[in-house]
Amino acid sequence: MPDAPTPIAPVINPDAPAPVRTLLGNRNAILAAGPAVHPVVAAGPIVLKGGLVLVAMGPLWVVTTPSDVEPVPGTVFAGTVHAAATLHWIADLWPYAGAATLLLAGVQAFRSVMYSRKLRALNAAAEHYVQDRDLTKDTRHLLARAQRAQSAILASQVHRLDLIDRQRNEVVLPVQVWEIASALRDYSRLSDNTAGDSSSAEVVALQAARRQALRVSRDGVEQRIAALEEYAAQVREADLRYQELQQIQRLVEGNDEALDLLARTAADALAVAEIEAMAKEAAIVAKTFSTALDRASAAAVIALPTRATA
């Protein structure tokens, strides 16, 4: 099963003139750009269809012209006359049909002119952007690596919070990726133009020197991509360390709350001791009251019979 093509986004030169950047801002327009179409060719199908309708409406108008004979209501002939009158009224709209055809054809021709103008502008700005079809399969993979590294850096939390010089990343990284993309485009073009085998010693030597130069150029680009990926790896590591730091801070804040809870627990222990002491005092008082009550009850028992005898 063949490998799926590596998806890449068009790369725009960040130093391109402002009008060019505005033109290239819609990347979908770059990807969907097709061949230019002449205005006459673009409007031709509409004119043809509208002309056929007009050609059919002429005879229809003649055939359905009302006669002077008054139909008898309720008969088949009356229904036929009514239908013919309706078709005649429709055929009588041929000027409006012709105007609509001309209007639609004009709009389509105008759109074709504007589209061709945009294509010419895209072709003029071709040196300011690199897209999928400009690269070979292997160089497309290299550019995808660079774009993934750039996306990882710009999506990191430490970048968004400006902990690793956000402004410089947003300025330098697009330039780095653009230089990588343009170098890979040149490499792809030159590698495609490499001549075939030859028996001439001079040609073989020139081809060998050319291939060596291409290898050196590619190696330089790969080293830059590797450095960009290393930077992305360091940024990911910084993200992890920052997340760990946040977790530690949350734990420290939680420890403060735990210490407060422990302090309240110590206060509870003191309160328990105080309440227990109070309970002991209450028990002594209750015991004293019980002794006094017993004595009073005994005295009452002794005294009551004496009073009854008396």
Total DSSP helices? 9
Radius of gyration: 47 Å
Number of DSSP strands?
Answer: 2
The percentage of residues in β strands lies in under 5%
Task: Return the structural class.
Answer: mainly alpha
Q: Largest sheet, if any?
A: 2 strands, antiparallel
Cα separation of the termini: 129 Å
Helix content: over 70%
Shape verdict: flat
Ranges where pLDDT stays below 50 over 5 or more residues in a row are none
Q: N-to-C SSE series?
A: EHHHHHEHHHH
Q: State the strand order across the main sheet.
A: 1-2
Mean pLDDT: 76
Task: Describe this entry's structure for a reader.
This protein is an all-alpha fold and 310 residues long. It is 78% helix and 1% strand. It has 9 helices and 2 strands; from the N terminus they run βαααααβαααα. A two-stranded antiparallel ribbon has the order 1-2. Helix 3 runs antiparallel to helix 4 (76-91). 13% of the residues are buried. The model has no long low-confidence stretch (mean pLDDT 76).
